[in-house]
Design a protein that fits this description.
The complex is a heterodimer of chains A (97) and B (1070). Chain A has 97 residues and is of the alpha+beta class. Helices cover 25% and strands 30% of the residues of chain A. Chain A contains 2 helices and 4 strands. In chain A, α1 (13-22) runs antiparallel to α2 (67-80). The longest helix of chain A has 14 residues, at 67-80. Chain A starts with a strand and ends in a 5-residue tail after the last strand. With 1070 residues, chain B is an alpha+beta fold. Helix content of chain B is 52%, strand content 20%. Chain B is built from 32 helices and 32 strands. In chain B, strands 1, 2, 3, 4, 22, 23, 30, 31 and 32 form a 9-stranded antiparallel beta sheet that branches. In chain B, strands 5, 6, 13, 14, 15, 18, 19, 20 and 21 form a 9-stranded antiparallel beta sheet that branches. Classes of the chains: A alpha+beta (97), B alpha+beta (1070). At the A-B interface, α2 of A face α13 of B.
Chain lengths: 97, 1070
């Protein structure tokens, strides 16, 4: 099992939900309206007057074999419009309940 | 949940709420009355008291007491009084907008307290409220040929009674209709010869004219009422009445000693229509009735129901129709609003290049506007010049919020968001700043609602309407606009290239063309502007200096008095009122003859005149009505209608000037006034009054005469009128009391005898078809037309007849003038109307002239009149302006969270006036109160543009751009919205500025002010605001990094610092 943390522009919420549905990933946790800043470039998402945009973030826990497919689709979404970028980070799940 | 999210998720509810709002608005629009101005309750109340005595007795015994009591009434603004023979009239003017009903109550209770101190025999003081419905709304001239003699009856039966059925009609009066009278003209010598008195004749006439119930009679089973009836069926029957029987047994008939005439009343009021016999029908409306509607209904009823029933020789001609001006003003303005709407949508389409977006924004305009109709209906106002001008002002503003929201939505869409998401997130990003800019507009316009006085009445509506419109538009912008965008806007189709690089698909041919032309042009403009801005930022001193010099130059015309100010524009309604006065005491027949001469000459000189009626004299020389009426035996009034403004080349002022020249050259006319606006509640009038206060009649009258002569030489001073009338000659019968008592007579008895002989004894009525006509017994004209004949009047006594000359002396006598007072001091007013000069200019000229005259002891001279009112209004406006500036500062300071930034915007306001001054100078227009309204609008727009610019500069600096670069970039990016606002407003005003419809004088000046002011101020704001920003800011002022480093020193401490556990690290040690 792997945990995938996805941070994306609010404007991609619908697409993200669609993406998970298509990949038949049922479980996820989403935090709406989160702040963030990209590592290399792009506008910060501060929800302030200066930087008004905001991100949403998701934590998706999937079987190991699903990860490459998910990341591939996320990459497509990211490249759809670079300004509304999507970032994903994967790590291991040790135990679950 | 936020309003925009709810709106987007519940599109049906949202759409229906706004549809309901539109329906309510349209419903209100249909219900709204149409009028010239907002309903203004004129704050005038008069108190009239009668008491026998001459004017100075009235002044001391009545007027003074009443004045002293009423002086402390709450809300009183000005108190004037007139003391005439037998009548005292105290007029109170209250503050505009004061509750008059309350004032009337206060006046009543104050008068109750004073009645005991008034002399015995004085009447109870009557309180009158001036009512706007006393102003005639329609005036017809009615002419007749054969039917002239019976005109009064025909008109009462067939016209006024029918017209009374029209909804909203107030008072109907017919002026100058011939009244039927039966005169019995008695020959003095004949009755003397028979030894009978006039009273005997009168008694004989009246006692043969009766209808008396004389009890009832019971006959068998029935009961009858008994009547004695012996009424005249025809006037000729009077001839055969027996007056007396001579001692010789000969009967004396009326026909033996008198002539019975069944005719029309002796001439006291001469009414001529185009020089022919006729009369005027004057129609007034009820308070609150819809003038335009009433006029239309009356006209319809006249044409459809009344005229067909009248004899064919009776002709109706319109003299004036106040609904005409109202309708054309309202139509003219409605047209302007329509064009403004069209232009705004076109401008939006031009700048955005998307028809869907333009429709969404276009929808926002009518919704915002119709809400103001609901407000107007709820407050009982009307569609009038002020409310419609306010709507025109609002149009340019209501689209701004929607544009901001839509632009941001479009930005999200271009990145490939779905319309729904774009709408939600884009609105979320901007809704706070949209509300903030609205607050600024509200800060500009809400203070207007607090204005008091005359200006308050005019501006209150503007304040509310604009406030309501922009608030509605903001609500629409954050609810309906995102909802519509989520439904109507389209996602840009994204083409995915091979390695995931997405880009939006190319659009069709039209948008390609648009991109190649308009966008390219606008981009070029942006670049050029950024270039200019960069240059200016490098040469701040030169830029500021040249702008200040420009501002200085623009002040020159103002300093040189080239810009005139008028309170209210004089409008060309194709109507003229001429009041003229002949030598005092001219008999009515003579006056009428002179009037005919004047008319003939006037028509010859002025082919534009299509209709005129002249009134000379008054119905009742001594009655109450004469106090109110402006005409008398030697004073006349002409109501003139000319062709419409656009049908002739000359202006109404030219025609007025010609008539003035003509009257100046008519030797019989002593004074005259020609006014170009009739009625309208005195709002269209313009005059400067010179008020001379002083007790001594001779001193003040002489001074007034001296001033009047002097003012005639002042340029542009016309229609000079001295309020105090010249002394009037009267004939007085002065009795010798001893002689009276020796004949067993009293003064009152003789006075009555004299009245019967001259004025007449009403000996009953002749009844015909339900109407009664006076039968009046009097001496024939030959017996009462000279001083000697008067002395020969026979007065019956118990011992036989005596002649007046045996009892009294007849003296010619100068009666004291009417005493006018203001603020409890005697006053003479000289009123002057400006022609070809502005009111303020004339007032200044007059002031310098009268300053040169040394005043006699105890005399005070002040300038007043509309000039004073204008000054008060302008000073009210200045106060208001200060209040606006303060409020705007508060809003801006809190928006920028800075005390200094708002000053940058404040300092750009004065430059808006340069444009106003130049525009007025070039067009030669004067600044009036409606123009001032445009100036306030300008302030709003300038401030808004400034905020847009500065807000963006702040933003760019927060995004770490260098100061000058931030300024140049912001300028480049904000140029379009600023140009858009300017373009929508200027284009919206063009139809207003060019309009020539009747009444357009009102708003032309506003159009000119806004167009000139906005053009100049937009250009200057675009330069001065960035440059001032650069001057006011320091490099690195918004550089938060250095600031932060100071605050968080822990980070830069050396790693090997050994901490003393008792000593904390001082982090915030700045």
């Amino acid at each position: 099992m792997k945990a995938v943390f996805i941070a994306f522009n609010q404007g991609n919420t619908e697409r993200m939900e669609y993406l998970l549905d298509r990949l038949e990933i049922r479980g996820y946790t989403m935090w709406e309206q989160v702040h963030g800043r990209g590592t290399n470039d792009g506008e910060p998402r501060h929800g302030s007057h200066t930087w008004p945009e905001m991100n949403n973030s998701m934590l998706v826990v999937v079987e190991d074999e699903k990860v490459p497919e998910l990341l591939a689709k996320l990459r497509l979404l990211d490249h759809r419009n670079l300004e509304m970028g999507v970032r994903a980070f994967v790590w291991n799940i040790e135990q679950t309940v | 949940m936020s309003i925009y999210k709810t709106a987007i998720e519940k599109p049906v509810t949202t759409a229906l709420i706004f549809i309901a709002l539109i329906i309510l608005g349209i419903f209100s629009l249909v219900k709204l009355p149409i009028d010239q101005y907002p309903e203004i309750e004129a704050p005038y109340v008069s108190v009239m008291t009668s008491y026998s005595g001459n004017s100075s007795e009235i002044e001391t015994n009545i007027t003074k007491y009443i004045e002293n009591t009423l002086n402390s009434i709450e809300g009183l603004d000005e108190m004037t009084s007139t003391s005439k023979d037998n009548i005292s009239l105290v007029s109170l003017k209250f503050q505009w907008g004061y509750n008059i009903d309350e004032a009337v109550n206060d006046i009543r209770s104050a008068l109750d307290m004073v009645t005991t101190s008034l002399p015995d025999g004085c009447s109870r003081p009557m309180v009158f409220k001036f009512n706007t419905s006393m102003m005639p709304i329609l005036m017809y001239a009615i002419t007749a040929e054969e039917s002239y003699q019976g005109l009064e009856k025909i008109l009462t039966d067939n016209v006024t009674n029918v017209l009374n059925r029209v909804d909203g009609i107030g008072n109907l009066s017919i002026s100058g209709a011939p009244e039927r009278y039966v005169y019995v003209d008695v020959d003095q010598e004949k009755i003397d010869a028979f030894g009978i008195s006039l009273e005997t004749v009168a008694n004989a006439v009246s006692s043969n004219n009766m209808d008396l119930a004389s009890g009832s009679i019971k006959v068998g089973k029935e009961q009858y009422q008994l009547r004695v009836k012996s009424e005249y069926v025809e006037s000729s029957e009077i001839n055969n009445i027996v007056v007396t029987t001579t001692p010789q047994g000969k009967k004396v008939f009326v026909k033996d000693i008198a002539v019975v005439k069944d005719t029309i009343k002796d001439l006291t009021l001469d009414e001529k229509i185009k020089g022919k016999d006729g009369c005027r029908l004057i129609i007034m409306k009820q308070t609150g009735a819809n003038t335009a509607q009433v006029c239309a209904d009356v006209q319809k009823m006249l044409v459809e129901e009344i005229i067909p029933t009248l004899p064919p020789d009776i002709k109706f001609q319109l003299i004036n129709d106040s609904s005409d001006v109202i309708r054309s003003s309202v139509n003219g303005l409605a047209e302007s609003i329509f064009y403004a709407l069209l232009f705004v949508v076109l401008v939006v389409l031009f700048f955005l290049g998307q028809w869907r977006a333009s429709i969404i924004i276009g929808v926002c305009i009518p919704i915002s506007l119709v809400v103001s109709f609901i407000y107007l209906l709820a407050t009982g106002s009307s569609l009038n010049v002020i409310s419609l001008s306010s709507l025109t002002v609002a149009i340019g503003m209501v689209v701004d919020d929607a544009i901001v929201v839509l632009e941001n939505i479009d930005k999200h869409l271009q990145r490939g968001s779905s319309p729904r998401e774009a709408a939600i997130y884009a609105t979320n990003e901007v809704w706070v700043s949209v509300i903030a800019t609205t607050l600024v507009i509200v800060a500009v316009f809400v203070p207007l609602t607090m204005l008091t006085g005359m200006a308050g009445i005019l501006f209150k509506e503007l304040g509310w309407i604009v406030t309501i419109c922009v608030c509605t538009s903001t609500t629409v912008a954050i609810s309906l606009t995102p909802m519509m965008a989520s439904k109507m806007m389209k996602t840009r189709d994204v083409i995915m290239e091979k390695l995931g690089k997405g880009k939006t698909k190319q659009e069709g041919a039209i948008s390609k063309l648009y991109k190649r032309t308009v966008i390219k042009g606008l981009d070029w403009l942006d670049d050029k502007y950024a270039m200019v801005l960069r240059w200016c930022l490098k040469h701040k001193a030169i830029t500021i200096l040249s702008i200040v010099i420009f501002f200085g130059i623009s002040l020159i015309p103002l300093a040189m008095d080239k810009i005139g100010m008028d309170f209210m524009p004089v409008s060309d309604q194709g109507r003229l009122t001429v009041n003229f006065e002949l030598q005092r005491g001219t008999r009515i027949e003579e006056s009428a003859k002179i009037a005919r001469e004047i008319e003939k000459e006037m028509v010859k000189n002025n082919p534009e005149i299509i209709m005129f009626s002249t009134t000379m004299g008054s119905n009742d020389d001594a009655g109450l009505t004469s106090l109110m009426s402006s005409t008398s035996n030697y004073k006349g009034q002409m109501n003139i209608r000319t062709t419409k403004k656009y049908e002739r080349e000359t202006t109404i002022q030219d025609i007025a000037k010609r008539i003035r020249t003509q009257l100046e050259n008519t030797p019989e006319v002593t004074t005259f006034q020609v006014s170009t606006s009739s009625g309208g509640g005195g709002m269209g009038s313009n005059s400067v009054d010179v008020e001379i206060y002083g007790y001594d009649f001779d001193v003040t009258s002489n001074l007034a005469q001296q001033y009047a002569d002097m003012l005639r030489t002042v340029e542009g001073a016309k229609d000079i009128k001295i309020s105090r009338e010249a002394d009037r000659a009267e004939l007085q019968i002065v009795f010798d009391k001893e002689k009276l008592s020796s004949h067993g007579l009293t003064s009152s008895a003789v006075a009555a005898y004299v009245r019967y002989r001259i004025y007449g004894y009403t000996a009953g009525y002749l009844k015909e078809d339900g109407d009664e006509y006076d039968i009046r017994v009097r001496l024939k004209e030959d017996n009462r037309n000279s001083l000697t004949k008067l002395e020969e009047l026979t007065i019956p006594t118990a011992t036989g007849n005596v002649k007046i000359k045996e009892l009294a002396e007849i003296k010619e006598y100068w009666c004291p003038p009417t005493i006018e007072r203001k603020s409890r001091q005697r006053i003479v007013t000289i009123s002057v109307t400006p022609v070809d000069v502005s009111l303020s200019e004339l007032a200044e000229n007059i002031q310098t002239r009268i300053d040169g005259v040394k005043l006699p002891e105890g005399v005070k001279v002040v300038l007043a009149g509309d000039y004073k009112e204008q000054q008060e209004s302008f000073s009210d406006m200045a106060m208001l302006f200060a209040l606006i500036v303060l409020l705007v500062y508060v809003v801006m300071a809190s928006q920028f969270e800075s005390l200094s930034k708002p000053f940058i915007i404040m300092m750009s306001i004065p430059f808006a006036f340069s444009g106003v001054i130049f525009a007025l100078l070039i067009t030669g227009a004067t600044l009036n109160i409606i123009g001032a309204l445009g100036v306030i609008l300008l302030v709003g727009i300038v401030v808004k543009n400034g905020i847009v610019l500065i807000d963006y500069i702040n933003l760019m600096r927060d995004r770490d751009y260098e100061l000058n670069e931030a300024i140049a970039l912001s300028g480049k990016s904000r140029l379009r919205p600023v140009l858009m606002t300017a373009a929508t407003t200027i284009l919206g005003m063009i139809p207003m500025a060019l309009s020539t419809s009747e009444g357009s004088e009102m708003w032309v000046s506003m159009g000119i002010v806004v167009i000139g002011g906005l053009t100049v101020s937009t250009i200057i704001t675009l330069l001065i605001v960035p440059v001032l920003y650069a001057i006011f800011s320091k490099h690195g002022e918004r550089d938060n990094e250095t600031q932060l480093r100071k605050n968080f020193i822990f980070f830069d401490m050396a790693d090997d610092v050994v901490f003393d556990s008792r000593k904390p690290i001082e982090e915030h040690n700045d």
